[in-house]
Design brief:
2 strands; 53% helix; mainly alpha; two-stranded antiparallel ribbon; 2 domains
Length: 171
């Protein structure tokens, strides 16, 4: 990362080593500011490892977003089923019992995929994919002393304007 660049949502970036050892690494602006100890790269960890572990974490973050969409799917589908049940009752009350019966029998409470309601999809996703992904991301972070977001912490040091309002390294 000193000389290699990767592309992220901000475009090509060259994050500094953020171990807080001096101005040559982009972390000391003369005020003693720099990343917190939890966001400094351990001395025995190379830039390639920081970048690789960062990519594993980035992939997990994408999976977290996908999981959120699945939960939205789950809740929206459940809400639609309840709304459809109410519509069936309104059709029945309006005298359209044949259509109400057909919708109720065919669609209300129907599996969204064979043998599964959405909660079962969520449980399977959580148990067989998401939880495994989270465990392996934690294992990958063991390579960086368990520290999180080291690549991003380096980007912050590289991109912030020390001494300017809203640009402090830490609280």
């Amino acid at each position: 990362m000193d000389s290699d660049q990767i592309t992220d949502e901000h475009g090509p970036s060259s994050a500094p080593r953020n171990n807080g050892t001096g101005p040559e690494d982009g972390t000391d602006d003369g005020t003693g500011e720099g990343p917190s100890p939890d966001h400094r790269v351990p001395e025995d960890v190379d830039d390639a490892t920081v970048e690789a572990v960062g990519r594993v974490t980035e992939a997990l973050e994408t999976t977290e977003r996908a999981r959120g969409h699945l939960y939205s799917f789950h809740q929206l589908t459940g809400t639609a089923d309840l709304q459809l049940g109410e519509a069936v009752e309104q059709l029945r009350a309006a005298g359209h019992t044949e259509l109400a019966d057909e919708i109720s029998r065919t669609l209300v409470g129907r599996n969204v995929i064979p043998g599964h309601w959405t909660f079962q999809i969520m449980e399977a996703y959580d148990d067989t994919y998401w939880s495994v992904f989270r465990d392996l991301e934690r294992t990958a972070r063991d390579l960086t002393g368990g520290r999180r977001h080291l690549y991003e912490a380096g980007m912050k040091e590289d991109r912030r304007s020390p001494g300017e309002p809203g640009h402090a390294a830490t609280l």
